[in-house]
Design a protein that fits this description.
Elements (H helix, E strand, L loop, with lengths): L1 E6 L6 E4 L20 H11 L2 H14 L1 H11 L1
Antiparallel strand pairs: 1-2
Helix pairs in contact: 2-3
Length: 77
């Protein structure tokens, strides 16, 4: 089901319509799934960033997840 931006007249709820689902998994198509290693992608992006921006991001990450920020800093060095 897909939620549309159309609203029913006397309701604040969005109208719901059945949407066609032609989504097949990679395995069903005979393809290998794409592996994503988000941690190492972030490390690579941080290494490419200028030092001030990198430190700003790491500081904000540290506020939410100090262990993650520490791990990222260790990988960058």
């Amino acid at each position: 089901m897909a939620i549309t931006r159309e609203y029913q007249r006397n309701s604040a709820k969005p109208a719901v319509q059945d949407a066609p689902t032609n989504l097949a998994t990679a395995e069903e198509n005979g393809e290998k799934p794409v592996q994503i290693d988000g941690f190492h992608q972030v490390v690579e992006m941080l290494m490419a960033a200028d030092p001030a921006f990198r430190e700003s991001l790491l500081t904000r990450i540290a506020r939410r997840d100090p262990r993650l920020a520490k791990s990222l800093r260790e990988q960058i060095l």
